[in-house]
Amino acid sequence: MQDRNYTMMQASLFEKLVSVTEAPSKGKLFLKEPLGLTSMEVSLNQLPPGGEVPFYHKHKENEELYVFIRGQGQVQVDSDILEVTEGSSVRIAPQGVRTLRNTSETEDLCFIVIQAKEHSLTQWVMTDGIILEEPVKW
């Protein structure tokens, strides 16, 4: 059978992520294994109202990008506290000491975290993309 140029999975709704995994990653679904990712780690995350990550962490080599898609909360990086809402994005260098919490009393904080080795991006959409000269067919 021919290998395909993609992998796909269907995750649960963000509000159901709490039931997907057990502690200490409750509310987090890592996509590396199911999708066979080779250059990044991606996770889908949900914190219930008033929830928080109960520890600080940093990384050896990977920067993280937090993309908030619902709710409101705070991200703490070193001694700075950043207010985040739907549409906020925060990039954190590997050495940044971080944690976060949901500051809402009624709504989940839902976000995506993308993790990749700092300074490893050598090409991006404008330098890596190739537009093909064939018509689109559905």
From TrEMBL:
SUPFAM superfamilies per the UniProt record, alphabetical? RmlC-like cupins
Which residue windows are transmembrane per the record? none
Query: What residues does the Cupin type-2 domain cover?
Result: 46-114
* Xref: InterPro entries: Cupin_2, GPI/OXD, RmlC-like_jellyroll, RmlC_Cupin_sf
- Show which residues constitute the signal peptide: none
Q: Which keywords does UniProt give here? A: Metal-binding
Name under which the protein is recorded: Cupin domain-containing protein
Whose protein is this, by species? Paenibacillus radicis
Organism lineage: Bacteria, Bacillati, Bacillota, Bacilli, Bacillales
